Structures
1.
Amino acid sequence: MPQFTDSFARRFYYLRLSITDVCNFRCTYCLPDGYRPDSRAQKSFLSRDEIRRVTRAFAASGTEKVRITGGEPSMRRDLTDIIAAINENPQIRQIAMTTNGYRLARDVVRWRNAGLSALNVSIDSLDPVQFHAITGQDKLRQVIAGIDAAFAAGFSQIKVNTVLMRDLNHNRLQQFLDWIRPRPIQLRFIELMETGEGSALFRQHHVSGAVIRDQLLASGWTAQPRQRSAGPAQVFSHTDYRGEIGLIMPYEKDFCVSCNRLRVSALGNLHLCLFGDGGVPLRDLLASDEQQLALQQRIARSLQQKSEGHFLHQGNTGITQNLSFIGG
Ligand code: SAM
């Protein structure tokens, strides 16, 4: 079975797999009222065997990187076993996870031993009071302790996701830079994306990553080349810093040209784009190992429907009410 490719000749090396919709944080731009089970959640999230099968099918069609996301992946008690199941695929060279960091200090050694090779931790503010206000959890110190534990467990670089918000953190670049000067952290500013539920917040706080890029370029930072299974960040480095800065700017022209990612939700639907598609059900083909070829064929066929761009800049938020079920 050949490499997954769409009708615009984009190749897909990277799967973002959500394993739960549940989250214990209440980020203002995502789940301000906290996670509430809805009718979808009456169904169960993908089991470890289903996750093994779906990742095997992607691996057999050229996927070399899987990112585990959510919801908050560490809310799953069987997370370590899930990592180990994905790690059964030798073609998958990198297993990454995006987490709020709440359970890092306690569990990171187990996750690493099971095969986790890369970590993204979400931190929108280095000020404990502001962190609490944004996430609904007074946990900045615990999350930072988790990052220290991850370094101690052997991760050589950790990525930190920071949603860029006007007047909240866009004017605190120096504080972030001071933090990463001695630490091998790639801190990635993600432009706030407009979702169905987040329109008011978007109007108030969206600011282009270009404001950060201009400041970096003016103070001696240089842009790095991009690798083929890398995520969407433009990465900048500086000789005086161990850390790097990444910019994820989905509103920038041509953002989608280099798209190499597909998503599978915790209920087993294939999403061709973070924004605006209803999802192709895969779960009926995850019941037994014998269905693998049919599964690969369905994914390959669905890819022909992947559109060229997300048209976010034209105000399209599609059906995406928030990013908690599809993994941000
Ligand atoms: N719970 C995990 C976490 O906190 O990292 C993983 C899921 S979370 C949905 C993944 C990422 O999406 C986080 O870094 C989060 O900040 C980001 N995110 C969620 N909603 C967003 C939005 N409207 N705009 C930009 N980034 C968003």
2.
Amino acid sequence: MAAQETVDHKYVYDFSEGNKDLKDLLGGKGANLAEMTNLGLPVPPGFTITTEACQAYLATGREPDGLAGQIEKHLESLERAMGKRLGDPQDPLLVSVRSGAKFSMPGMMETVLNVGLNDQSVQGLARQASGEGSQAASGGADRFAWDSYRRLIQMFGKTVCEVPGEEFEHALDEAKNAKGTSNDLDLDADDLRGLVDAYKKIFVKHTGREFPQQPREQLDLAIRAVFESWNAERAVLYRRQERIPADLGTAVNVVSMVFGNLGPDSGTGVAFTRDPGSGAQGIYGDYLANAQGEDVVAGIRNTVPLQELEQLDKSSYDELLGIMARLEEHYKDLCDIEFTIERGKLWMLQTRVGKRTAAAAFVIAGQLVDEGLIDLDEALHRVNGAQLAQLMFPRFQLDHEFEAVAKGIGASPGAASGKVVFTSARAVELAAEGESVILVRRETNPDDLNGMIAAKGILTSRGGKTSHAAVVARGMGKTCVSGADEIDVNVPAKRFTVAGQTVNEGDVVSIDGTTGKVYLGEVPVMPSEVVQYFEGSLDPEHIDNALVRAVHRIMTHADGKRRLAVRTNADTGADAARARRFGAEGIGLCRTEHMFLGDRRELVERLILARAEGEREAALAALLPLQRADFEEIFREMDGLPVTVRLIDPPLHEFLPPLEQLAVNVAVAQERGEDVAKEEALLAAVRRMHEENPMLGLRGVRLGLVIPGLFAMQVRAIAEAAVSCARGGGVAKPEIMVPLVGAVQELETVRTEAEKIIAEVVGDSGVEVLIGTMIEVPRAALTAGQIAEAAEFFSFGTNDLTQMGWGFSRDDVEGAFFWRYLELGIFGISPFESIDRDGVGRLVRIAAEEGRAARPGLKLGVCGEHGGDPDSVHFFHEVGLDYVSCSPFRVPVARLEAGRAVVETGGSDSR
Ligand code: PEP
Ligand code: MG
């Protein structure tokens, strides 16, 4: 935002002028202090300097015109309200200067307390503290005043002048050692006076000047330091991680000091209106007598549970509980609170809607509905898919410290422990013996499928979130860590090395697919109750589990609200069945490639090596019944629901042995004088089919146009399976999908052939087969109007659309250099994970509009990985798609987010 430097521009707000909705301008802390002030709660008077002032300062390197005068004016009125002057030698007003951005950034930015103390006013403060009615004896008052002064020098030095904090801490330790104590309370006024001298010397040593004695100079420098702390390295890092925009700036709160360290009738504490861990109702908090807030954070002494305040100071305790109830009622949410008691008088220093765990978010939303504070729409708004996803994964019980030995990409969440194996075959063998195994590979390929199915988890040293391992593992709901590049995998030697240690086949490792962390040895794992509920093994009406009941209630509401249907990506009957239990309303993508693996590989080789017509046809004829059986199983599981089957997509050489391996085998066999005619033919075929850029080569519809009979066989298998289901009394609703189409002519050619086969097979069975296409090549998106003429539906393949839209190889780039792009802020999240709304999203939007313009009512869906990403689901809702399709485990997340999308756009859509 541009600096706004008119003299009239308002940069400073008294607490009585703001409210909780002004977070952009006053930051979270300032807005909520204003709200509490206006509720009549006991907030120490103060004012807030706006984020706009900070933005202007950061843009120009100086305070905007008018700011100094406005601070002066507000300071004067604060002095009038308190009946004291800042730094007055007799009776000083002291203030705290605290940061407060729109989004809470705990501990990231700066605070300076006790501003206004100097060599004179410290005496005045001591006299005040020993005043009438005080429990602090005059010795205690002296002690308090000097302690406050040394805190100011310490915080000011560290924050404003970058004096290394350890030097102050060291001096404090020395003072305690000299006294033979480890407790700061044992230091008396003389000790602290000595410490102030020591601190001042440290200050001079590092800054070359005396500690400033002018209160107003202290205040101005502290405000400036808080502005600048917005760009401190740790704050920048935190914002990037939390995706907080870099240009918001922080507000600065100048608040009259109240003291929790004035004696045993004073203290400070934090409280939550409900348990932020579980959501349970009750009183949660900590209290520390005779202390200031930073002592609690620094852990200088042990706090006591908040309940104990009832014995120490019943009237403050009762008042606090009353205020907490009032705040919850007012904010209609869990609040967290910071408070101080100064000589028996309670002061509220902060409140905000409190952070909470995923479980607490659901439980609290459910409770607030029960209490009539919010409605179900609001409850739905208050939870999110990322939280639900967290609740669906088994978790490690990291009770005692397990140290990770490597960290890769959390590619498919969950927690898995098992014996390390390096080949698919060994994974299958050991799993058959009842062992849990972790399949470790440099990267996986379609050949590893059986091993991946058998394994509890998959660990690779290469590849990103859309690598083969990641996509397939997510599809199976299996834990996967990919791209753990500290791990050096040696498959022939059956071992990997990491952090100087060697892990052999059979050794146990544990992997966390959420954090990407890898542990040596077994970490115990707990199953998810929420998954048990989705699977139907926990009945929410009959169990005493607040979380499961809340999830059930909110999911039911989301289903009632959402306009988007949710389908699943599933290639097997088992996956289809599970997804259906999770609420899938059909299959949006059945990838048929795995149906060409295993013992069918030989048939694929025959198909590729065929020279004469008859050979190819024989191979296809042998594949036909196998494919038909695959489809029958899936149609059965999805009885009555649509099933989109995609014709074969990957380049065929993926189904042949790797070139290098084959070349070595042939050379060795030749050396031995063996008959290698067959292998040679295979090698020649692999060489012939070798491509430099296979992702842009002979795949998808191109295969169907080049290899006669291949698509025809698949179309026939689909149609026959549907008819067989119908004859058995079921309802199959196949939708045949053609991959990688870029021009309508490609689709028309496939369609003409397919329609003939379908007509012949379906006859009068009543089966209806739709034919549509993926939109995953940018040209298809840009010519969607033409393509729609030949398509009954579009399904956006946003993985390839992202790959080709950005020109990013989906198997390589995430691990290779995305870290740098994220660091530079070119994007805040991988575009393979969450849809790039401006670029790839624009292609989706254009294709949806032009497709529907050419063919009104054209069915639109998405089946790329983005179909299960919360933010992307909102985008697909906005664009007007009919459904999203995602891996089985993400189906509940997509249902929830599709409901939230309606609530958040203020729509009243319901199904
Ligand atoms: C896509 O490209 O988005 C898609 C779903 O197809 P695949 O991931 O199989 O290439
Ligand atoms: Mg694709």
